[in-house]
Amino acid sequence: GQNIDQPTEMTATEGAIVQINCTYQTSGFNGLFWYQQHAGEAPTFLSYNVLDGLEEKGRFSSFLSRSKGYSYLLLKELQMKDSASYLCAVYSGGGADGLTFGKGTHLIIQP
Amino acid sequence: GAVVSQHPSWVICKSGTSVKIECRSLDFQATTMFWYRQFPKQSLMLMATSNEGSKATYEQGVEKDKFLINHASLTLSTLTVTSAHPEDSSFYICSARDPNRGIHEQYFGPGTRLTVT
User: Fold this and answer.
1) pLDDT for the residue numbered B105
2) Helix, strand, coil percent values for chain B (each to nearest 5)
3) Which range (B43-47, B82-86, B112-116) has the least confidence?
């Protein structure tokens, strides 16, 4: 089966750093995505990891360890507009081209 | 980046009626589109994979006779919710892959909020 776990909610302070963890157990693995979703809107792409290691893109970085079934999204210099849900999604591949999403982490940024 | 549109953005319908939602790739040809459903405070759940010119592939537990998918062209997929019931009220989101950009380039539409009364 497919199982993707991430914390339901996190709170952080403006200007600080926050790390959102994601663990997965899936029948196949061909990459892990992070998406940002504001309430009532579609997800927007943040990052994609298929090999182990850290991918940095501006204030956002994403890490993957395939052997541990683990990823994290690191957000630096937090801004109020970063308040959103962050979705971890796995691409299993093998003909099942859709993504399997975790339930999302609702991130609240406080002044 | 690539743009995917959905129409309508929101719709209210009466129980027992059918509703059609359109998903269009505006600046690329999408051989594959995906339909997701998201209930409040829940994750996106893949409903079906729509391939141009062939039948859709439905995920386990999704009724193909209730959620009709048509992908008649490389830029348009439609989802028809037939005989809608209040429990079908949800946020329906499509996404499309640009085959020229690799699998990580999957673009989401803005979503359609369906309310069945």
Assistant:
1) 67
2) 5, 50, 45
3) B43-47
Best of A9, A26, A37, A50 to mutate (most B CBs within 10 Å, chain B): A37
For A97, which of B32, B45, B93 is closest by C-beta distance? Answer: B32
DSSP A27-86: S--S-EEEEEE-TTS--EEEEEE-SSEEEEETTEEEEEETTTTEEEEEE-S--GGG-EEE
- Cα separation values, A64 from A16, B23, B24, Å: 22, 32, 33
C-alpha B87 chain-centroid distance: 17
Inter-chain CB pairs, A–B, below 8 Å: 54
In this predicted model, what pLDDT tens digit does every residue of A8-35 receive, in sequence order?
A: 999 999 999 999 999 999 888 989 999 9
Residue B55 CA from chain centroid, whole number = 14
Give residue-wise pLDDT tens across range B43-52: 899 999 988 8
* Residue A98 to residue B42, Cβ atoms within 8 A: no
Cα angle value B101/B104/B110 (rounded, 5°): 95
Residue at token pair 């997929």: B77
The model's pLDDT over B5-61, given as tens digits with 9 standing for 90+, comes to 999 999 999 999 999 999 999 988 888 899 999 998 888 999 999 888 888 999 999
Q: Give B46's contacts in chain A (Cβ within 8 Å).
A: 98-100
Q: Which of B34, B53, B27 minimizes the C-alpha distance to A42?
A: B34
